Amino acid sequence: MSGLRPILESSRRLVVKLGSSLVAPPSGRGASLPGLARDLAALDAEATLVSSGAVALGRGRTGRSASDLPARQALSAIGQPRLMRLWQDAFAETGREVAQILLTPDVTEDRARYLNARAALRAVHAMGAIPIVNENDAVATEELRSGDNDRLAAQTAGLIGADTLVLLSDVDGLYDRDPSEAGAAHVPFVSRESLGGYDTARMVSRSGVGTGGMGSKVRAAALASGWGVRVVIASGRSDSPIGDLLRGDARCTVFEARDERAPARRRWLSSRAHMAGRVHVDAGAAAALRRGASLLAVGVRDATGGFEAGDLLRIEGPDGPVAFGLASCSEETVRSGEAKIVVHRDDLVLEG
């Protein structure tokens, strides 16, 4: 896969994600953290690591199971310092400092928090350190599975305006079926057109260590590549995983990125996970939205969810989802007939 060399070498900002099965494997071989540290230190790009493993390390330290949310939160709190120690030791010989960045799922829901997180990451890079990003599971109010780190990696790539996202896994990319099955074929390239054909709900984690799996990686790739970020899924079970990709010594799956880079505000909008409401529009309004117009109240046929101005809305036409965006007014205002613009075009992202 020699074509990866120009992709990686031309990246100004690179995000690399490792799952729990690589950082804290229950058995067998995980990732060489010092080897990956050397790889990243040798690149000219600003590198950001998204690292799982806190819960798994906490479980290994205590011997306790993550039986419910409070237990998982406690294991995360116990394991997170050990996770950072692993990365400090890994980068020690490179002379690079590491910085802990813990994010909560709502960092993408609130614009001010989103911008503050971006400023913090930029400041860490300005000091020559490597940010180690993880979800702040110890204080998360939702089940940990709702915020898998593959999506967090995609959100981080959007947050910092990364050129490339590398998702390191315990397999060397995407296959047309479970790779343990006879005849499974490796998929080296996924086009924008073919991406929607993958049934990610049936792709589950086989390691039993983390909360992700190949399905979450494909969903993360769809999100990031839709912003124009180049996405690679590759094996992390190597002494030099990035070096192997540069030399063409490793197989991987490359996801085609959208040609046009999404503006920062639209990356923020489409990284948000929680839809507060839904509006149904007529065919004329759906067509106007696809031409780049704002959503006018005259084209709305129904509104649900009890949304307020500033909430995120799903917009559906007669043939299905059309777009999503920030409400310019409340549902009550729409229903009263007082609204003119329901979603402004600057606050709108088309589906697909």
TrEMBL record:
One of the protein's GO biological processes? L-proline biosynthetic process
Q: Which residues bind ATP?
A: K17, S169, D170, T211, G212, G213, M214, G215, S216, K217
Q: Where does substrate bind?
A: S52, D137, N149
> Could you tell me the keywords of this UniProt record?
Amino-acid biosynthesis, ATP-binding, Cytoplasm, Kinase, Nucleotide-binding, Proline biosynthesis, Transferase
Is Amino-acid biosynthesis among the key words of this record?
Answer: yes
The entry lists its GO molecular-function terms as: ATP binding; glutamate 5-kinase activity; RNA binding
Q: Which GO terms describe its cellular component?
A: cytosol
Give a yes or no for keyword Nucleotide-binding in this entry: yes
Q: What is its EC number?
A: 2.7.2.11
Catalytic reactions on record: L-glutamate + ATP = L-glutamyl 5-phosphate + ADP
**Known pathway:** Amino-acid biosynthesis; L-proline biosynthesis; L-glutamate 5-semialdehyde from L-glutamate: step 1/2
* Entry's localization field: Cytoplasm
Domain PUA: from-to ranges: 277-350
Question: Which CDD domains would you find in this protein's record?
Answer: AAK_G5K_ProB
Looking up InterPro entries in the UniProt record yields:
AceGlu_kinase-like_sf, Asp/Glu/Uridylate_kinase, G5K_ProB, Glu/AcGlu_kinase, Glu_5kinase, Glu_5kinase/COase_Synthase, Glutamate_5-kinase_CS, PUA
Q: So what family is this one in?
A: Belongs to the glutamate 5-kinase family.
NCBIfam families (alphabetical): proB
Instruction: Please give the function described in this protein's UniProt entry.
Output: Catalyzes the transfer of a phosphate group to glutamate to form L-glutamate 5-phosphate.
Q: What is this protein called?
A: Glutamate 5-kinase
Gene for this protein? proB
